[in-house]
Please model this.
Amino acid sequence: MQPFFDHTKGVKKTTVGYTGGHTVDPSYEDVSSGTTGHAESIQIEFDPQEVSYEKLLNIYWHNIDPKVNGQFADEGTQYRTVIFYHSDEQKRIAEQSKKDLRASGRFDKPIVTQIVPASVFYPAEDYHQKYYLKSTSQYNMYHDNSGRVEYLEKTWDR
Model:
């Protein structure tokens, strides 16, 4: 998800990490085991004068499968789709965007993406930050073979 937001005007910083679970200061190995309750996530710092929260949500929805508890080749609750909000206004906007997406008729199954209050965010290890730039060939191999591209083309007519 990081490159989609990194290339958005108004996004000042993205940090990949883990949140929403019960383990303090988890590692990638901890989270990927599925036992921490955390979800792999991305923290986005943005200038609301340059990019709206609604636009960020739209980018999110257009790059995930909101109908499953996992993402493409990655299965398990640590890969669940979830929006962590930081204010009542963000919650309201996120819930409305989910409602609008549901009403669009685009999906034949229920949207299971959770909308929950933000909790402690633990940045991932340095080698995960900007992984798409640091390990381009590995990132591209995963991206191209995960089923994401085909799903997004089918779902969003890309």
